[in-house]
Specification:
Layout lengths: L5 H17 L1 H4 L2 H24 L13 H20 L7 H19 L3 H21 L5 H30 L16 H15 L7 H8 L2 H23 L8 H23 L4 H20 L4 H29 L12 H4 L1 H15 L5 H15 L3 H22 L4 H8 L7 H19 L5
Helix pairs in contact: 1-3, 1-5, 3-4, 4-5, 4-10, 4-13, 4-19, 5-6, 5-10, 6-7, 6-10, 7-8, 7-9, 8-10, 9-12, 10-12, 10-13, 11-12, 11-17, 12-13, 12-16, 13-15, 13-16, 13-19, 15-17, 15-18, 15-19, 16-17
């Protein structure tokens, strides 16, 4: 039973998809579709096996008290994003399946990495697969977005390797479990550099430059994966390193983390408020959510780490919903804020899901985003950072402004009444709406984890 965990299932699935791709021509016209359905089955199986058997536990990868929960929500979001992509009825090559499964495998391996080498390789697997996913949709800006993502990814990996080398030079080990017994002082430079390296993946300011352009150039369903699962992996990597591995209890680290988090939250909120394009506004909103998750880690307490983990879960689901819903609207040329009232004409269920997910990102009760922010405020306040809580309240006022600038023309009550009216809906749109309904319900079901 030790091999019945999601990582082994995903790895075996990747090999099986590659093998079937070689044999695809002998399978006939149905071969490509069969591979897509197989990929969905692999994701479902991984999710089920994770629930029963947990994650992989070997030399360079080990379970933690939170790894099974995080792996579960990553697989949950990944499954529904992939089903949404399939619902497009477009011609997707098997490269999509291989890249997508590899990205999901990399994200789940980041969660359980117990060594800097395994962490670096897991992030690289996730990153390389994500580059391919961005470029796969051959839109006018896909190449530009992929190149920006690739170039910043290379820079971040070089920075991360440099930081790891400094840690190794001072400690003589790369194992997380061995770093607890090492003096903290030699690691100040290494810690700062690692924060910069992982900051690119987590879209923390000032390492966020690639995100708005890449998000806007990518197909929105792919952006949903990058802004939720991929970003969550980067933030979880920071939690794993700075709370569970390195001995970082110091005023320097706290000041560094708080500065980066506050800068991320306020700068992204300001930039979002001046955006006229909906997707670019959503990109800066996603950056702001990463800042909220990171600021609770800054207090370096168990309450802060737990609040950060829960908030990563909360914003990842909401981010996935808004980008998936916007994928339906973008295809109908709903690009600017002033066009938000037209969303109901495309999909009333999609518009309602978009509306609720935006409320969750803004932190309105009774959504999961409200409880996530509440846990962050509690962690900060109990650690003596009441003034930070006041600053965050001010940032919420700013974010509420730009969220409602999009939602102002949307009346969900009208949409709910109009849903009862019968009209012909294409099957692919109906499938997308079902996926959005399931994810939207999870915004409320997830409250029990708070």
């Amino acid at each position: 039973m030790e091999y019945l965990n999601p990582q082994y299932i995903l790895f075996s699935g990747i090999l099986l998809v590659i093998l079937l791709d070689f044999l695809r021509h002998s399978l006939g016209k149905s071969g490509k579709g069969f591979i897509h359905y197989l990929t969905a089955i692999i994701l479902v199986t991984s999710f089920v096996f994770n629930a029963f058997y947990g994650t992989m536990n070997i030399h360079m990868f080990s379970e933690t008290e939170y790894s099974q929960f995080i792996t579960s929500f990553m697989l949950f979001i990944s499954l529904f994003v992939y089903l949404f992509i399939l619902a497009d009825r477009e011609e997707h090559s098997s490269v999509l399946d291989i890249s997508y499964l590899s990205a999901v495998l990399g994200a789940t391996l980041v969660v359980i990495s117990s060594n800097f080498i395994s962490l670096f390789l897991s992030i690289e697997l996730l990153s390389i697969s994500s580059y391919a996913l961005v470029y796969m949709h051959k839109s006018s800006g896909a190449l530009e977005g992929a190149v920006k993502y690739l170039s910043t990814g290379i820079v971040s990996m070089v920075i991360l390797i440099f930081g790891i080398s400094i840690i190794y030079a001072g400690a003589g080990t790369l194992s997380f479990s061995s770093l607890h017994n090492v003096s903290y002082l030699p690691f100040i430079a290494g810690i700062s550099i690692i924060v910069a390296g992982l900051g690119f993946k987590s879209t923390l300011v000032p390492f966020h430059m690639w995100a708005p352009d890449t998000y806007e150039a990518s197909k929105s369903s792919i952006t949903a994966f990058i802004s939720s699962v991929s970003k969550a992996a980067g933030l979880i990597a920071m939690i794993r390193i700075f709370f569970f591995a390195l001995p970082v209890s110091s005023s320097f680290v706290t000041a560094l983390f708080l500065s980066i988090a506050i800068l991320t939250i306020f700068l992204s909120a300001f930039l979002a408020s001046v955006q006229d394009r909906i997707k670019r506004l959503l990109a800066y909103s996603s950056i702001s959510q990463a800042g909220f998750a990171f600021i609770s880690l800054a207090v370096l307490t168990s309450k802060g780490a737990q609040a950060a983990i829960f908030y990563v879960f909360a914003f990842a689901i909401a981010d996935a919903i808004v980008f998936l819903a916007y994928d339906m609207f973008e295809s109908k040329k709903i690009i600017y804020r002033k066009d938000s009232g037209k969303m109901y004409s495309v999909s009333k269920i999609g518009a309602v899901s978009f509306f609720i997910a935006m409320l969750s990102l803004a932190g309105f009760p009774p959504t999961i985003g409200f409880f996530g922010k509440l846990l962050i405020f509690y962690a900060l306040f109990s650690s003596g950072y009441a003034y930070i809580v006041l600053l965050l309240f001010f940032s919420l006022l700013v974010s509420t402004f730009y969220y409602f600038s999009v939602l102002a023309d949307m009346n969900p009550l009208v949409a709910l009444r109009e849903i009862k009216t019968k009209h012909k809906v294409k099957m692919d749109q109906r499938l997308k709406e079902i996926i959005l309904v399931v994810l939207t319900l999870s915004l409320f079901v997830g409250i029990i984890f708070a």
